[in-house]
Amino acid sequence: TFVLFLTLSLFFSLTALIEPGTIAGMVSIDVLLTLIIVAVTYRCASFRHKKVENANKVYMNVRANCKKK
Fold first, then answer.
1. Which residue, 11, 21, 38, 54, shows the most beta carbons closer than 10 Å to its own?
2. CB-based contacts of 11, cutoff 8 Å, min separation 6
3. What is the largest CA-CA distance in the chain?
4. Taking the model in full, what pTM does it have?
5. Measured on CA atoms in the order 46, 49, 51, 57, is the torsion positive or negative?
6. What's the confidence (pLDDT) of residue 27?
7. Which range is the signal sequence, renumbered to this chain (predicted)?
């Protein structure tokens, strides 16, 4: 991710000023944040997919009233 790129560029430019534990913490938080974003996106996408599948099960005249957002 972009944050990881910034973290690594900061690491290489300021190696003497930042302790290794701080860099490890920043990388760990970046990985955790990325996983949270992926999980939330997957959950929202699967919920929306189920909603469309359920709408396809009803009669065609009722299906026309269900709008995709």
1. 11
2. 18, 23
3. 69
4. 0.50
5. negative
6. 87
7. 1-17
Cβ burial of 1 (10 Å; 0-12, 13-18, 19+) is exposed
pLDDT at 28: 92
List average pLDDT for each run of 10 residues in the chain, which is 69 residues long: 73 69 87 94 79 59 52
Cα separation of 19 and 26, whole Å?
11
Q: Report how far apart the first and last C-alpha atoms of the chain are (Å, whole number).
A: 28
Closest by CA to 26, choosing from 38, 40, 13, 10, is: 10
CA distances from 42 to 5, 16, 20, 38 (A): 24, 40, 33, 6
Give the Cα separation of 44 and 51 in Å (integer): 11
Q: How far apart are CA 64 and CA 38, in angstroms?
A: 32
pLDDT of residue 19: 78
